[in-house]
Amino acid sequence: MYACIEHWTTVWRWSSFDLVSQVHLDYLEAGADIIITASYQATIQGFEAKGFSREQSENLLKKSVDIALEARRIYYERWSKSSSGGTGDGRILKNRPILVAASVGSYGAYLADGSEYSGCYGEAMTVNALKEFHRRRVQVLAEAGPDIIAFETVPNKIEAQAFAELLEEEHIKIPAWLTFNSKDGVNVVSGDSLLQCASIAESCKQVVAVGINCTPPRFIHDLILAIKKVTTKPIVIYPNSGERYDADRKEWVENTGVSDEDFVSYVNKWCEIGASLVGGCCRTTPNTIKAIYRALSDRSPAAPGQK
């Protein structure tokens, strides 16, 4: 079975938690089967630097999971009250399994200097230092009750190793996925071997899926084929729109990506060669997810690669 994934950039300047819930609902009503919490760039260290206490910082992380869980509850409530399946007004309201994934972004996302797109943390950075940076954050998110933990936009081998070791050391019971990003369609963004990075995920029993996110769609085909060489686990794919991120200006460069129509044109091929979960990352929208949902719904049960 294929699944659509919702992903959206974390916004912590919330005027209302209801706005975050509404975004989740927009994606659910567009057909998303997995919603990812708004915690990608949220860290205890980052909150504390802004003046929050340790308790407040941990509560904000928990809140990101609570909001997603509540959005799922509201969605099911809307489905139960719907008599038309939600297709008449453009909404997709179906009684289907929906998972909440707790997002854990890379150390580079915390730095907010674009280094999650380079993987360059400096020679002094170690696996142990990365584990200590992420440890309490992972514990708090796991305790909040998500269905899965999404380690996203992993840019280098040492952070993949840190995440794998953390899962084992902390005896995290919740399954996880690791997704990497690439800017050349061959290696992860640091230049480390994708095969070595994916092998780390493959060797960790708590990791149940491995794949690629926040990478231009044009690179995904070859990356899937590469990952298949070293993993037997489901492959999860959620590219960005293909637009280029300007780390100096801290913004995406408009008109450098692909349209929703072009994005979705790749989906069937990705599934045929091995992708099991497909969604959209930065600069994609609920409209993108709806188009992916329709593409996956149109696939024949006998199609190559169908799970």
Automatic annotation (TrEMBL):
PANTHER family, per database record: HOMOCYSTEINE S-METHYLTRANSFERASE-LIKE ISOFORM 1, ZGC:172121
Example GO molecular function: metal ion binding
A GO biological-process term: S-methylmethionine cycle
Cofactor(s) essential for the protein: Zn(2+)
Protein's name in the database: Hcy-binding domain-containing protein
KW Zinc (keyword) present: yes
Sequence ranges assigned to domain Hcy-binding in this UniProt record: 1-296
Record: residues binding Zn(2+): 214, 281-282
PROSITE patterns named in the record: HCY (PS50970)
Swiss-Prot/TrEMBL keywords: Metal-binding, Methyltransferase, Transferase, Zinc
Species name: Gossypium raimondii
Pfam families named among the record's database cross-references: S-methyl_trans
Domain of life from the UniProt record: Eukaryota
